[in-house]
Structure formats: C-alpha cells, structure tokens
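Thread: "does anyone have the structure for this chain?"

Original post by V.I.:
We have the sequence but no experimental structure in hand. Need at least a predicted one for the grant figures.
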Amino acid sequence: MRGVCFRGVGRVAVESLTDPVIDSSGDAIVRVELAGLCGSDLHPFFGRETGIDPGTVMGHEFVGEVVAVGHRVKLIRVGDRVCAPFTTNCGECFFCKRGLTARCAAGQLFGWREQGVGLHGGQASMVRVPLADATLMTIPSGMSNETALLLGDNLSTGYFAAEGVGVQPDGVYLVIGCGTVGLLAIVAAFQQGATTVLAIDPEPSRLAIARSLGAVAFSSPDELLSELHKRTDGRGADGVMELVGLPQAQQLAYQAIRPGGTMSVIGCHCTPHFAFSPSDAYNKNLMFRTGRCSARHYMSKLADKLVANPIDLSWCITHRFSIDDAVQAYDVFAGRKDGCVKAVLTF
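Reply from O.Q.:
Generated one for you, tokens below.
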C-alpha cells in the first residue's frame, strides 16, 4: 500500500508500505477512500509536538470500506462504508459509558507511534482499526464521504467547542481561528441558538467564509476588541471559542472574555504554560473548559441531525490531492496557500 509517512520536522514522504493485517480479534481493516489533513497534523510537522517515530503513517481522518474483520467483530461487516473518530474507543469502560470516548482506558490516537508503540494513521491506502465495533461508525445511506470525514473530527470538534460555551440566544460569542474547526464552530454556535458570533483570523479567504456563515469577522485584534466592547457595553464576550492552540490566541481569548464568561479552548496547546495566570483567571471569575473532543460520542448524535436536517458543507474542503501528491498537499495546507482551508487526499 501507499502511505504518507512522517520523516522529520517539515518533511513527509509518500512510501510503499506493507499492508496492515488483523492483529487482534477486535480489529478491522479499512480500505481508505478519502483522508483529511488536519491542523493537529501540523503540530508534529512543525515540531511543536515531539516524540513521533519517523516512518509513522500520518493522519487521523479517514473514510472507506471495511475489507477484513477479526472474529470478535460483530457489528461492523466486510463491505460496510465507515468513518472513524481520531481516537479508538472500547465503548465499555468508565469513560466511554459517560460519553468521554476521547479518554477511553484502551483508546489510542491514529497517526501517532512513539518508540514503536501506537497506531499508524489514515493517510494511507489501508488502515488497521482496533476496537472496531465501538470505534467505527457505518456511514448513513445518502451521506457523502466528505461529510462523513468531517463528522469524524472537524464537525464534531466544532460542535463540542460551541457546546462548551453554553450558547444562549442573547449572548455574544467569539471564535478565534477560522480554520475548518473554527468555521464549523461558527455553524454549530448558530445551530445551538446564537444570534451574534464574532470571529478573527489573519487569512482573508477564511474571513470571507466566516462572513458567509453569518459571523462578523476581523483580521485585526484591535478592531475585534473595539467592536466587541461596543456590542457589549464594554463587558466582553459571554463565551470565547479558542481553536488555534497558540499562546497569542489564548491571551486574546482572555482579553476578550467578560467577567464570569466561559472560555472553550479546543485548540491543541503544546506549550507548558498558560498565557494568563491563575490570579488573572480568578480576577475574571473565568470558567475555563478544554480537552480533546470525544468525537465518537458526537458522531452518532450529529449523524442523526445531518440526516434529518442536511446542511451545506461544500465550502469546507477547498483542495483535493491524490496520495501521490501528498507532499504538495502538506506544503499547501501548512502554508495556507491558494486560500486553502482544508485539504484531502483521494485514493
């Protein structure tokens, strides 16, 4: 098979690899049809996260067809069209039963191997999926591969971010970072009842999409804060969704939030310290929520909503590449070139 392998900071390579095989009786093998590039993939790519083994197949967003299952797999069958969350989960442990599938006691992250331990990712022709019955979701009839791909990560995470601020119709909300997840957080906030959403991002193409989705969007923090204060009589935002994962974004979130507001930090932070102090948080009576989205928990819930009330997500995926052009895909996606919001690989 062909796969996109991590080869060092700033370097990936498309390589010929041995096909995955059933390693445990609960495994499934999925032949990948579509794989996504995610902002989280850029953390090891840029060296912000370290420890990943060279040669690890990248990626944690994929959809495809099941081609083999272990003898203990009962719900997922050969021939099923499936999508996956970015982490595996057992469905039976303390955390899974409470909807915290991202913290499953047996869960693993796709696309992260360290010192020979872990899972290869989904940016390959085929991928092994442990705990297949609980991890994989059969794609509903009529749902496109593109929507199913978003459901497994970006769409669920955007919904999680908006849910984290406790949206109220009379509230004023801010999204920091208009990548795919930030844009989908705007969609989710409006779906959850928001009437006023502001957003900020340095990229004009992303701001244009944010505005088309109903947000009031800015590229300048000063202009954003000025408008926010006008709309709230100087209080600040009732809720801030921070989806960047860098200290500057966290600091802006703190500046923008009102006393007693809720900060939903979904961007994956790799720095060892907060951009504000415990006393700063205390002085604002800040409600701070963060953590990895339990995507598998949200997938079923959101799939039902999408089947009942489909929404237009055609704007999400701006660039498509074949697996053989994956190096170019990383260059375009990582550099935000050519107005790239989200890139996918086809097989």
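V.I.: this helps a lot. The mean pLDDT is 96.
O.Q.: and The chain has eleven helices and 17 strands.
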